[in-house]
Amino acid sequence: MAAEIPENPTDEGDLHRALGPWHLISLGIGCIIGAGIFVLTGHAAAGYAGPGVVISFAIAGLGCLFAGLCYSEYASMIPVAGSAYTYTYATLGRLLAWIIGWNLVLEYLAAASTVAVGWSGYFNNFLTSIGIPVPQALAGAPISLTGFHTIAATGSLFNLPAVLLIGLITWVLIVGVKTSANFNNAMVVIKLSIVLVVIFACFSYIVPANHTPFIPPNTGEVGHFGWTGVFRATGVIFFAYIGFDAVSVAAQEARNPQRDIPLGMLGSLVICTVLYMLMSYVETGIAHYSTLNVAHPVATAVEALPGTRWLAPFVNVGAIVGLASVVLVLLLAQSRVFYAMSRDGLVPPAFSTIHPRFRTPYKGNIVTGVFAALLAGLLPLDILGELVSIGTLAAFTIVCIGVMVLRVRAPHVRRPFRTPFVWFTAPAGVFMCVFMMVFLPMDTWLRLAAWTVIGLAIYFFYSVKHAHPPRFSILALPAE
Question: What mean pLDDT, rounded, does the chain reach?
Answer without folding.
Answer: 80
